[in-house]
Design brief:
single chain, Molybdopterin biosynthesis moea protein, domain 2, Alpha-Beta Plaits, flat, 5-stranded antiparallel sheet, 3-stranded antiparallel sheet, alpha+beta, disordered C terminus
């Protein structure tokens, strides 16, 4: 039997215990990150989501052992691959952890030999360099550089490295000189295990705003369907009652059912129809009396809504009789108007 170093046994035991005790266990890829940046990232995460970096074989052993008490956690082993890994332990939601790690990423220069994450394109335009040997250096790596107006310029756009290809060392040097940093450096959460569920990177990489919009859209759609079907819940009961009330009121007004709620609306509707009919007849000579003609010209409120005539005050006798005559006139006019409405609308 091969001898196993004591420190390895201790490390596996430590990792196993932390995996069992932690509500959320994440697998993080840490390769390609310069040591100072990695230490800084781990320091920032130490309080709420500490990361323990170890050999992949030891991580596999710890996950296998922990799965005896925490079934399913060993599914993280399928995500390890060949990159250097670490385990993240946290109480936070896995989606929030992913977003925090994503936000901590930074751009880094290429040294040569790295795989380009995306097309590396040089754009046409001026550079910060003065005329000199730099022109030849850029031209040697395929960058169309020239001197114009005492400045070094890139003559046209140039694709240097396609996504997925390795970055040659000489091109990496030229990119650094041009302050173009094609690499993204950061901790990569490849998966997280919580409450028996493994969340892989493609699931964790959801846009929070897009997710919220989708949930809101689903809620609005469900509400509209419930309203259409008349399905009563604590959220739809008030809108359903309001909708039913408005539909009943509309039906009653159109059917001419008179009650305390519909009387004013029916009168208002009849008044509007009367004015509309009077307007249509206004072109015929003698079709309208003076009052209807005045109403059409003034477009005032219906007679039922006009203020009552003044009751008079401590006026002289002559003034009182004049007002009495005016009141009689008003009364006769209102009766005639009511008779006219009755004749028009039955």
């Amino acid at each position: 039997m091969a001898h196993v170093a004591a420190w390895k046994k201790e490390k596996v035991a430590e990792l196993t215990q932390r995996i069992i005790e932690s509500p959320v266990v994440g697998l993080v890829a840490v390769d390609g990150i310069p040591a100072p940046q990695l230490q800084d990232m781990r320091r920032k995460l130490r309080k709420e989501s500490p990361i323990v970096v170890s050999k992949n074989n030891l991580i596999r052993l710890a996950l296998t052992e922990a799965a005896k008490q925490k079934p399913g956690v060993d599914s993280l082993m399928d995500l390890i691959g060949t990159s250097q890994s670490g385990l993240l332990f946290s109480h936070k939601n896995p989606f929030k952890i992913y977003q925090e790690l994503k936000a901590s990423e930074s751009k880094a220069p290429a040294k040569g030999g790295e795989v380009a994450p995306e097309d590396i394109m040089i754009k046409a335009g001026e550079t910060p360099f003065k005329p000199g040997p730099i022109v030849g250096e850029l031209q040697r790596v395929g960058i169309p550089a020239a001197i114009e107006g005492g400045k070094v310029v890139i003559k046209k756009d140039k694709l240097l490295v396609k996504a997925g290809e390795r970055i040659p060392r000489d091109i990496a040097g030229a990119l650094t000189r041009l302050e173009i940093y094609p690499l993204t450096v950061g901790l990569k959460l490849k998966g997280a295990f919580e409450k028996g569920i493994l969340f892989k990177e493609d699931v964790l990489a959801v846009d929070p705003q897009e997710y919220v919009s989708s949930v809101q859209g689903a809620a609005v759609g469900a509400f509209n369907i419930a309203m259409h079907l008349g399905y009563a819940t604590s959220l739809t009961i008030r809108p359903l009652l309001s909708k039913a009330h408005m539909e009943a009121l509309n039906l009653a007004v159109n059917a001419g059912v008179v009650n305390r709620e519909t009387a004013e609306l029916i009168i208002s509707k009849a008044y509007g129809q009367m004015l509309s009919l009077a307007s249509a007849l206004s072109g015929s000579e003698g079709a309208l009396d003076e009052e209807l003609t005045g109403l059409l010209n003034a477009q005032g409120p219906p007679p039922s809504q006009q203020p009552p005539p003044s009751a008079g005050g401590d006026e002289g006798a002559g003034g009182g009789e004049a007002e009495k005559e005016e009141e009689e006139k008003e009364e006769v006019t209102e009766e005639e108007a009511a008779a006219g409405l009755g004749a028009l609308f039955g």
